[in-house]
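REVIEWER CHECKLIST
Item 1: Sequence provided? yes
Item 2: Single chain? yes
Item 3: Sequence as submitted:
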Amino acid sequence: MLKFVLRRCLLVVPVLFGLLVLTFVLIRVAPSDPAAALAGENATVEQIQAIRQQYGFDKPLTTQFVLYIGQVLRGNFGSSVYSNRLVVDDLTLRLPATLELTAAALLLAIVFGVPLGVLAAVAHNSVLDHLLRVFTVGGLAIASFWFAIMMQLLFSMELDWLPLRGRLGIMTDQPPDWTGLYLIDSLIAGRIDIFLDAIRHITLPAITLAFGGMATITRFTRAGVLDILQTDYVTYETAVGYPRWIVISVYVLRNAIVTAVTQIGLLFGALIAGAVVVEYIFDWPGIGSYIVDAILTADYNAVMAVTLLIGVIYALVNIVVDLVHALIDPRVAEQL
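Item 4: Structure as written out by the authors:
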């Protein structure tokens, strides 16, 4: 198992390097002058040239890339033009908010997606199955930004049930900064009032972000359960008189969940990337809203750092997914 993890970590290195090269080249060859964007509309030629020299934009592209790689290897992603702080400090400050939102959305997607998928498979070709298929298609087709705005209009503006934006209310104190995750930190501090306020603020963005993922998990769980239900050993277990719920929960679901686990792992990385729009609409102070501001202000150091961070998260999640497969299916463990 240890050799497998080490081998996968080594295979991740060229992937991340390729991602870094691609992002760097795309940013630098874009038909715009980054120095002019940083200087502003009213900047003079001398000011633009000074910024170009300050950030090394006047050097050849290969030289810029070598210098940037050297910085990354030292853990230095440069300074953010938008915040005037080190990019590493910005990511450290904002990443917990994104991880908390993503984890909440993924938890909602799993809690509702897996049971709905099993229910659709057991009730195959029934009215319920058709309704759930319409629901999943809608979940995959609806744009997240439109769904987010509709949720705000209904639950915040019209019904006034949930907050419109932010992680906490303006009158609520922040919990002690132990993990950066407000839900966990508030419980550790024993502040139930902060915990409940954080729950209210995270509900709408988490549901918005989870909707598409829940549809994906439902579809893959349904397909996996249908395949297992048609196997001979399930037919035998049903024939000998095992209760239906035992056959489904013990024998069918464990074998059918392997495909869904793969999607759950990939969804975690996809939700972090998809949180860009949701965070910006709900004013959620994570890396999603951070990279939007970075793009609007031509903050290339921040864009590069966030892209690399998301790539690392994808790679780590894939490794964890393979390990979970090994725990679920012993045949996979023998191949590691």
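Item 5: Key structural point noted by reviewer: Residues 36 and 223 are 53 Å apart (CA to CA).
Item 6: Recommendation: ____
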